[in-house]
Amino acid sequence: MRRTATGRRSVRRARAFGLALVCLAAAGCGPGLAERAAEQARKRERLERGAFRFFAPETAEVAAGSVLDLGLQIRIAEGFYVPIGTDAGDLAALRIEPPRISFARVTHVAMPQDAKLVELPGHPEARLCYDGERTIGVRLDVARTAPPGRRMLTFEVVYQLCSVRGCSVPQRTSARTFVDIAAPSGGDVDDLAP
Description:
Mean pLDDT: 79
Distance between the termini: 72 Å
Strand order of the largest sheet: 1-3-9-6
Largest sheet: 4 strands, antiparallel
Shape: elongated
Order of helices and strands: HHEEEEEEEEEEEEEH
Low-confidence stretches: 1-8, 19-28, 187-194
Strand content: 35-45%
């Protein structure tokens, strides 16, 4: 069964190959230029791959029936931006997709408020974007019936990386954290009344 070139890498390789073919077909394209064009495309792909990083704390502890606050970190390399807000045209806004778990629910996601307006190539209006390092706050309500033990949570982020050259296609990456759940502490407030 043949595989189609639908993956990000396949699309980028096809673009690099296409660029090399255009170079070969162009008048005055000397030997080695096609190889250099393909190498530049590969270098740009490696740079983009390392330009966005997403981290979650390695471990966290919480008692069943309480609230867990996590700080998810994003790091954007210098010269790159990630649009935020709402999707507009061909720009996808940064969004966190919380884990689907039975023992807790995400009640709040706090996005940083220190975005800046950036004029992105090919887009008529400036967009609010993040650059540098940012912390995204996530609050989980852990069920009182959550069984004690270690659980893994996987958070996904959807983002689109932009620079002065243009924007990549929307991408997805994930980060995981291990949560140690302890038995519920004490009784309810009503249980403590005399």
